[in-house]
Every structure is written in C-alpha cells, then in structure tokens.
Design a protein that fits this description.
By secondary structure, the chain is of the alpha+beta class. Helices cover 45% and strands 14% of the residues. The model has no long low-confidence stretch (mean pLDDT 93).
Amino acid sequence: MANTAAAVPPVRLRLAEDGTACRSGDIAAALATLARSAIELVSGVDSALIRECGAEECTRLYVDRSARRSRRWCDMRSCGNRAKAQNFRRRRAAAGAVA
C-alpha cells in the first residue's frame, strides 16, 4: 500500500516571491509525501531506533534518539507525564495504606 501511495506525484513545493515556502497538491499528493517519508524512515539508518510508545492507550511510534536509547514515551508532555502522575498517585495511595 505504501508503494502505491508513494508512486503518486508528491506535494509540490515552490519558493514564493516573499521568500516563504508554498506547498500545493491534493489529498493523494499529501498521502504520497507521507508514504515516501515513511518508506525512507523504515528503510533508513534510523529504522532500528523506531519504538512504540509505552503508554497503553497510545498508538504512536517515535524515533528514540536519546543518549541511552531508553526513552519510553512518544512525548513526555503527554504520555510520559500521565504515566509518571499515575505512578506517583499509586505510590502515594500505597504509602497511605501502609501508614
């Protein structure tokens, strides 16, 4: 499926007179651009760094470029924060039950 989508001409990029980038194309062109990027990612040098988010409800993938390659969540501001807050509440509840 990715090969079929990537075969369509991608989004066209041009430089406007004011120096900004202008993109044009239809949905098929946008999908072709995404498919090409996906193919380059999974077949490239970073393919071994692709990870799945550790949050149960999250379906996102990310490229783990952390120093130790030990990243667990797609985004610390969302999934990572929720997981850490949940663990904190769990520890507090357990500490309260012991005391």
